[in-house]
Specification:
CATH class of the largest domain: Mainly Beta
Radius of gyration: 20 Å
Order of helices and strands: EEEEEEEEEEHHHHHHHHH
Structural class: alpha+beta
CATH topology of the largest domain: Jelly Rolls
Strand content: 15-25%
Number of helices: 9
Number of domains: 2
Shape: globular
CATH architecture of the largest domain: Sandwich
Distance between the termini: 27 Å
Largest sheet: 6 strands, antiparallel
Length: 285
């Protein structure tokens, strides 16, 4: 069942299950993220046998088929959302829930199944605390609806979770740059120095920046700034968070510095970007 927003006259098509037993999966007309925090479970996923061992994440589409074979003290939580949850820029008091052609593309490939991708992702030791924190906050907000921007916050954490999973899924064996990238994607909302990345990658400054430029086209700190701005773009487009809230959520200490960096790199202010992205989406729709 959708959540009824007590601040606005709208249904929000998301659910959070604190104790997922896997027997109702997948949820109808939903994308579902299942976070396995302890134990293990053997399943048939689309008639293919798999074993999930904590900590890991399972991403499901609405048409996937699940059959539980063996449960070994599994503990898991799940968050599911209708595709329309990713197609909504803002709420209009006159028109209600405004659905348009906006789409958050981050992480949607994680749900597709093929010969390479089973939808199962191992959670690293470094990523686990952040993922656990983000899931906890999403679950709390679904039930608490702590203020009128609760939906925006859930979108923010969902974008963070999917972005981190995308990065983890692209790694086979972790190179020094992969270690630094995981650190960035996990902690970009916090203060990060070049020394932090050097320590994480076990390289000196020159070697780290050389490898980053070869693989990513930026220095290590240049990539950090680019990634923060990328997340900021999604938050500007898909939430009503203030510039100060977005600045803090993406690791900028002050909103004035965020505005300066965004304007310099994107050629327009964050406010102009937000207005243009939404107007373009409605024109396309």
């Amino acid at each position: 069942m959708p959540q009824m927003d007590r601040y606005k006259n709208r249904a929000v098509y998301i659910e959070f299950v604190a104790k997922e037993d896997f027997y109702k999966l997948p949820y109808e007309e939903r994308f579902t993220i299942v976070f396995i925090t302890s134990g293990s479970i053997k399943l048939k996923l689309n008639d293919y046998p798999i074993k999930l061992v904590a900590p890991s994440i399972l991403c499901l589409e609405k048409d996937d088929k699940i059959e539980v074979m063996e449960n070994q003290n599994i503990a898991a939580q799940s968050f599911c959302f209708h595709p329309d949850f990713f197609n909504t820029a803002y709420f209009s008091e006159d028109k209600g829930y405004m659905s348009n052609s906006l789409k958050i593309e981050t992480g949607l490939s994680l749900f597709k199944k093929n010969d390479i991708n089973s939808g199962v992702y191992t959670v690293t030791e470094k990523a686990y605390p952040k993922l656990y924190e983000w899931f906890f906050i999403m679950g709390t907000e679904v039930y608490a609806q702590s203020d009128p921007l609760w939906v925006c916050r859930i979108k923010k954490y969902l974008i963070q979770i999917l972005g981190l999973l995308e990065q983890l899924s692209s790694q086979n064996e972790q190179s020094p740059v992969d270690l630094a990238l995981e650190y960035i994607h996990t902690n970009y909302s916090d203060k990060i120095s070049l020394e932090d990345l050097i320590s994480c990658a076990h390289l000196n400054r020159v070697s780290l920046n050389k490898m980053f430029k070869e693989l990513c086209g930026f220095t290590a700190m240049g990539y950090l700034l680019t990634y923060r701005l990328k997340v900021a773009e999604s938050l500007l487009t898909h939430t009503d968070m203030s510039l100060n809230e977005i600045a803090r959520a993406t690791g900028f200490e002050y909103d004035t510095y965020f505005i300066k960096q965004f304007t310099s790199k994107r050629g327009r202010t964050p406010t102009e970007f937000r207005k243009e992205s939404r107007e373009f989406a409605f024109i396309q729709h």
